[in-house]
């Protein structure tokens, strides 16, 4: 256990879902937070300011603004923009390396990067390999760094309600166990690392809160709703891009190697499994799309 950090924690991506979860977890621990934002006048940025978050305006193509925004920060969390095309993958790498360079220039004592599950090696999935590239760049920077590698989010697993039946459809065979983690728990793990409340061996940890097959996921939602539930495995051809198809092939490959679910709970004892996430969020069945 390391000595806890008391200084300002800088967060890039604070106005988004994942960065917002990191801010939530830091504020729960009474940590001073500085959000690096493109538009400090946006509604979401102003909501953060109202909660006591310091705002710093930055441009990812302006190294000086990034370095200035990180001045005197005791730790820095960043994630990179979601990439859906090869062009966006290149932009993601550019932004990620710029943030690392700024961290070096500002001499940030500890940097936490939110990567992706399996990014310890190249996978052939462009928007996953981009994070591998950023990880490698960060490791070579000489900075003290920690990599968190979340599995897919529980928040994207929600099924549909059709004719009074809960139906989950994913482009994965029904015997494939999907690894998943709640966004809340990613934020809490990141906060623990940023505050030096924990150390992780090797400077990287894969975040998995549960792993269930499609039928098991559907059943968990059905149990909550008190309705029958089933799973439908879709062909990969339903996915809109080659990047998405490569990603789901990687999900299936990752399922061949079960995860140690205790790893996340050693850092965040209250980490949720899927049933716990469904209960904690108060999830309820959506409107029936075709009538009961």
Describe the structure.
The protein is built from ten helices and twelve strands. It has helices at residues 17-28, 43-50, 63-69, 86-106, 126-140, 183-194, 214-225, 242-254, 262-267, 274-281, and strands at 9-12, 33-37, 54-57, 75-78, 111-114, 145-150, 160-162, 165-170, 177-180, 204-207, 210-213, 229-233. The strands form three sheets. Strands 3-2-1-4-5-6-10 form a seven-stranded parallel sheet, sandwiched between helices. Strands 7-8-12 form a three-stranded mixed sheet, covered by helices on one side. It is globular. It starts with 8 loop residues before the first strand and ends in an 11-residue tail after the last helix. The mean pLDDT is 93.
Total beta strands: 12
Average predicted local confidence, pLDDT: 93
H/I helix tally: 10
**Which structural class is indicated by helix and strand composition?**
alpha/beta
Low-confidence stretches: none
Biggest sheet record: 7 strands, parallel
**Helical percentage:** 25-40%
Strand content: 15-25%
Order of helices and strands: EHEHEHEHEHEEEEHEEHEHHH
Biggest sheet, spatial arrangement of strands: 3-2-1-4-5-6-10
> Can you tell me the overall shape?
globular
The separation of the N and C termini measures 54 Å
């Amino acid at each position: 256990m390391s000595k806890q950090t008391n200084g300002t924690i800088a967060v890039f991506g604070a106005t988004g879902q994942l960065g917002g979860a990191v801010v939530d977890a830091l504020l729960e621990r009474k940590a001073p937070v500085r959000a690096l934002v493109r538009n400090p006048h946006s509604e979401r940025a102003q909501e953060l300011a109202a909660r006591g978050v310091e705002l710093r305006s930055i441009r990812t193509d302006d190294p000086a603004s990034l370095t200035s925004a990180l001045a005197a920060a005791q730790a820095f969390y960043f994630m990179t923009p979601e990439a859906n095309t090869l062009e966006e993958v290149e932009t993601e790498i550019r932004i990620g390396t710029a943030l690392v360079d700024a961290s070096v220039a500002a001499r940030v004592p500890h940097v936490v990067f939110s990567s992706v599950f399996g990014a310890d090696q190249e996978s052939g999935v462009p928007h996953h390999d981009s994070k591998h590239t950023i990880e490698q760049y960060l490791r070579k920077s000489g900075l003290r760094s920690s990599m968190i590698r979340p599995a897919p989010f529980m928040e994207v697993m929600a099924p549909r309600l059709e004719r009074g039946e809960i139906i989950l459809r994913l482009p994965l065979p029904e015997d494939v166990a999907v690894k998943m983690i709640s966004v809340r728990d990613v934020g809490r793990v990141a906060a623990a690392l940023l505050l030096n409340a924990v150390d992780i061996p090797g400077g990287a940890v894969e975040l998995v809160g549960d792993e269930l097959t499609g039928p098991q996921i559907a059943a968990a939602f059905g149990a909550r709703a008190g309705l029958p539930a089933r799973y439908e495995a879709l062909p990969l051809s339903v996915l809109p891009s080659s990047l998405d198809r490569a990603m789901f092939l990687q999900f299936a490959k990752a399922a061949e190697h079960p995860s140690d679910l205790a790893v996340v709970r050693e850092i965040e004892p209250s980490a949720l499994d899927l049933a716990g996430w469904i209960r904690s969020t108060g999830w309820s069945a959506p409107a029936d799309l075709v009538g009961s």
